[in-house]
UniProtKB/TrEMBL annotation:
Protein's organism: Kosakonia quasisacchari
Keyword Nucleotide-binding among UniProt keywords: yes
GO biological process: one example: glycerol catabolic process
GO MF, one example: ATP binding
Top-level lineage group: Bacteria
Protein's name according to its UniProt entry: ATP:glycerol 3-phosphotransferase
All residue ranges annotated as the Carbohydrate kinase FGGY C-terminal domain in the record: 261-452
Length: 500
């Protein structure tokens, strides 16, 4: 193998860290994954060890470097779970505390206060994002408040605040590079979508000193070089960083119009490429999809906190988690098809609140419509159906945008392996669902951006590296029948919101 053959993409997610090596044809030639733990010390609090995120990331990259040979690695790329906020001391690189994950709603009261102060309009206009504890800014504020003299230290440049990409880059480069990419910056609620930089009004509103924030760079380009890492040679260029949902959209179709992407993971991101930063749809976020080194591409997005997580909760609650992994996967495919319906049961998985299009952090989950005949199969089906309804709710909101078009829903993530789920989604939406069976789609998207920087090629020259899709065509007769169930689901959502 020549050096140009291998790009290693690190995909640091919520539940695991994966490293994937891709050769010059874009084929996966080696991969490694490590699980990550999630802590919930209080209701609504969701956190992870920042050290564990780093250690797992280093370990999987090290193993893949060893598998392909260090001399064959041309570049590294990073995709990451988004909105998760980490603070660390600049001098030592030690974290201030845990990483506050995107699911964490501990700052709900702070966000509520901003709404009460009438700040929602200026925040949405400036950043493209609605007020919600999902985004990083309020979490960064909490991190500074949680330590003595946090704001003063940050203002003096002694504290770094960042998203996961900047945390990893800092350590991968031996503390020489403190940067994030445009996609991750746009998820903080501190980024001005129109000027393309940190916004002074937002910094003042959230009390975040500019000195504590990373430099913003294009998603494709040089961020720094590896330095001082055990088992990973010095000098490997890091040529791409991007949020994982954005990376998946890039890998699906390079941002072609009409190709709407839904990532089915712990939560879900539904994202559509759009031409401008303007968005009048109150319930959705406008974000930077990526900066490919040539131009900014924007995205219209709805974020759902509990999709795969909803199924995992129901699996545990019904005892299916005791099955071996292969048997569990089979059960999730056969149980929902073994019954004709849920017998009127709806599961609204607002386990830490509702995301788009509702944005209600005070809503709480419920199982509605239980009757004596309901069995485990009905409950599992209700959990799977809840994924499709939540995604369809976001698509309905997207249709309010005058530049939105939907030719096909392009899907990825673990739950998409369930054929029953994919067909139900196609039938509910009444459009084709195109599944990528490549488990490493976010990693591939990041690797494509790194390859673009490495070879100095345009996007059309990357098209040959795109993975293939399997298409689920909608049954339009069933589509018509499912509209009543979808309406009843929305009524159940209102009940979940009424419990707040």
């Amino acid at each position: 193998m020549s050096q140009e053959n291998i790009i290693i993409a690190l995909d640091e997610g919520t539940t695991n860290a994966k490293a994937v090596a891709l050769n010059a044809k874009g084929q996966v030639v080696a991969k490694c994954a490590r699980p990550l733990s999630i802590e919930t010390p209080r209701e609504g609090w969701v956190e992870q060890s920042a050290e564990q995120l780093l250690e797992a990331s280093l370990a999987v990259v090290r193993q893949v470097v060893d598998a392909v040979g260090a001399q064959n690695v041309a570049a590294l790329a990073i995709s990451n779970q988004r909105e998760t906020a980490i603070g660390w001391y600049r001098a030592s690189g030690q974290p201030l505390g845990p990483a506050l994950t995107w699911q964490c709603s501990r700052t709900a009261d702070f966000c509520h206060a901003l709404r009460e102060q009438g700040k929602e309009a200026v925040i949405k206009t400036t950043t493209g994002l609605p007020i919600a504890p999902l985004f990083s800014a309020s979490k960064m504020r909490w991190l500074l408040d949680a330590i003595p003299n946090g704001s003063e230290l940050a203002a003096q440049g002694e504290i770094c605040l960042g998203t996961v990409d900047s945390w990893l880059l800092w350590h991968f480069t031996g503390g020489t590079a403190f940067c994030c990419d445009y996609s991750n910056a746009s998820r903080t609620q501190l980024f001005n979508l129109h000027s393309g930089g940190w916004d002074n009004t937002m910094l003042a509103l959230f009390g975040i000193p500019r000195q504590a924030l990373p430099q913003i760079r294009p998603s494709s380009g040089l961020f720094g070089h590896t330095q001082g890492l055990s088992g990973i040679p010095d000098g490997i260029p890091i040529l791409a960083m991007i949020g994982d949902s954005h990376a998946a959209l890039f890998a699906h179709g390079l941002g072609a119009a009409g190709g709407v992407k839904a990532t089915y993971g712990t939560g879900s991101s539904v994202m559509a490429p759009v031409a401008s930063a303007q968005c009048d749809v109150k319930s959705l976020a406008t974000t930077v999809a990526w900066h490919d080194g040539e131009r900014l591409v924007y995205g219209l997005e709805g974020n759902i906190p509990h999709t795969g997580d909803a199924v995992a909760w129901m699996v545990e609650s019904t005892g299916l988690n005791e099955l071996p992994e292969a048997e569990l996967a089979q059960a999730l495919g056969t149980l929902p098809a073994s019954v004709d319906s849920t017998l009127g049961v709806y599961f609204v998985p607002a386990l830490t609140g509702l995301g788009a299009p509702w944005w209600d952090e005070h809503a709480r989950g419920l199982i509605h419509g239980l009757s004596r005949g309901v069995k485990r199969a009905h409950l599992i089906r209700a959990a799977l159906e809840s994924i499709t309804y939540q995604i369809a709710d976001v698509v309905v909101a997207m249709r309010q945008h005058n530049a939105f078009s939907l030719n096909a829903l392009m899907v990825d993530g673990g739950p998409t392996k369930n054929d029953w789920l994919m067909q139900y989604q196609a039938d509910l939406l009444g459009c084709p669902v195109m599944r990528s069976d490549v488990a490493e789609l976010s990693a591939i998207g990041a690797a494509l951006l790194a390859r673009k920087a490495l070879l100095q090629v345009d996007n059309e020259q990357l098209r040959a590296f795109l993975p293939e899709h399997i298409t689920f065509q909608p049954d339009m007769a069933r589509h018509d029948r499912l509209q009543k169930r979808w309406f009843d689901w929305q009524n159940a959502v209102q009940l979940a919101r009424a419990t707040a």
